[in-house]
Amino acid sequence: MWPVRVYYEDTDAGGVVFYANYLKFFERARTEMLRAMGYEQDELIANEGIIFVVRSVQVDYLSPARFNEQLQVSAKVSLAKKASLTFEQVITRSDDVLCKGSVRIACLDAQTMRPKAIPETLFRAILEHTRNEY
After folding, report:
1. What are the pLDDT digits (tens) for 4-54?
2. Which CATH number fits domain 2-133: 3.10.129.10, 3.20.20.140, 3.40.47.10, 3.40.50.920?
3. Which of 30, 56, 71, 116 shows the smallest number of beta carbons within 10 Å?
4. In the annotation, is 12 catalytic?
5. Does pTM top 0.70 for this prediction?
6. Which of 10, 12, 42, 109 is flagged as catalytic?
7. 48: nearest Cα among 107, 129, 127
8. Core vs surface per residue 16-45: b (16+ CB within 10 A) or e
């Protein structure tokens, strides 16, 4: 779980988080998960020649988040394939579930933008991280 503070810029005129900004919170949690595992996305581009891109998203908005609230965002890999990962993500405020999402990420060659296998060491680290998360 990663903490996210709701800033004024995240909200609409009514002080409620704009729906698309939940996707930004999901993105931050996935990035922080990689960072916690010792991987930086800019280094993956430079050293491995790969990028991760969103392939598909399914989101359920259950309850609104509001300006200045402290949220928690999870990022758990539910399916790991050779060139893609599916994350199940949840945004909570205390014990209240505000938003749930399933996000499929594709691994692409940074030059050709074609699918490319996730490097073996990273793939093993993701699998190990996933085992420890559940």
Report:
1. 999 999 999 999 999 999 999 999 999 999 999 999 999 999 999 999 999
2. 3.10.129.10
3. 56
4. yes
5. yes
6. 12
7. 107
8. ebeeebbbebbbebbbbbbeeeebeeeebe
